[in-house]
Model the fold of this input.
Amino acid sequence: MNLMKHIFVVDDEKSIRDLIKLYLEKENYRVSLFESGKNVLQEFKNQKPDLLVLDIMLPETDGLELCREIRKTSDVPIVFVSARDEEFDRVLGLELGGDDYLSKPFSPRELLVRIKNIFKRLDKTINSEETSISIKDMK
Done:
């Protein structure tokens, strides 16, 4: 059903990246991994992912700044997964354009369900836009 949707996973912890990748690939998502914000923006322009899983605390460019930059040109869904679990951080992530926010430690199954739900809503929106047909001057 997902037609090989492509997901960027950006987290500085290798174990978290690998765990998320394992769960996503089991569901036939294509996954690209990044350990810092450094290359994400360039790759984002080249590959156009369908969704980002984004940590906030990253070396060089943090996840909030990445989200800010991405939102200048794209509405791609962004799910924050971060150890920063204060209300302020969650609200800020969502206000900057994040679509969802999970605090670490998190359940990979819960993350997967949240991602699937985002894609379901997007697919419904796309399908409803495609099914509207207008016919003018038909004689």
